[in-house]
Amino acid sequence: MNPGERFPDLDLPDHTGRPRRLSELGGGDPVALFTSRGWWCPKEQRYMRGLCRLQDEFEVAYARIVVVSGDPPEVQSAFRAGLGARFTFLSDAERLWLPRLGLLETTDTVHHPYLPAAFTLGPDLRIHRAYNGYWYFGRPTHDELRRDMREITMAVREDWEAPAA
Amino acid sequence: MRAFAFVVFDGARLSLDPRAPGRRLRIDPRCVEGEPVHRAFAHVCALPDRSAALRYDEPEVQQARRDALAWWIPMLGDDLICLTTFAIDASRCAGAMTVARDPAKFADDPFARLFSGTVVPTDLFCAVPPPAGPPIERYAGAPWPGGRFGSAVHRCGS
What ipTM score was computed for the predicted complex, to two decimals? Predict the structure, then answer.
């Protein structure tokens, strides 16, 4: 999955167990999509706490955050509540999309988790940038996410330049 | 997609008939664009008084939307049918309505902090996927969580 390609339109249950599609969650806005090992990983806990600070900007900037992990919905729901997250988690507990996405973290033979990765997507799910978060510092910083959201927003909002009087 | 539909609330009843007596409120149009769910309950956090409104930008109105995303919608789970704020114009909010299969949890409704809630049995509204979050802003004046900006071509990324 490289920049310019379209990210698959995932169909998975959300943290409440309700069936969702990635395109529906995007709702016509730019999306920051994260694949996550799961609630048990200290690196994920740290990174998600940071995302919860960044959500205060996304909530007013017409952009979405979506997290995909192999945790079941009830675990995601508890994790999400503990974090104070206001964005959607998608549950691939059955590992339906994991092999198709080629994101299995092969070095963890206990949990068979998602490889930590991030993708910034346009409203049409076209990949703007991809990040490999296997090592923690491979994940996008908040400034990198802001930059990507700015670039995508500039590209898709025809009124990026405020209309003249 | 139209930006909003209307519902009329007289303090005790809801109607989709624009000639019905009561206060005319803008709602997320998706709430009335599908097959209605029968034997549902609406928690109408609004008053029939036409002056009862707050600006969407007021901190308490923002916080009610955050709370809806954070815990209200997850708490309702499968009971949730749809949720919409009430707009009366481009900037003012007259409250909100949560429609559910079971009214048992309505006492926790975060929008009841804005205007007191009335439980109304209803067959008018259909199931709508809950908002994905985290946006709490409105799209071009549409009642939150409805609306979206027009389609656009993604011209970057390659």
Answer: 0.91
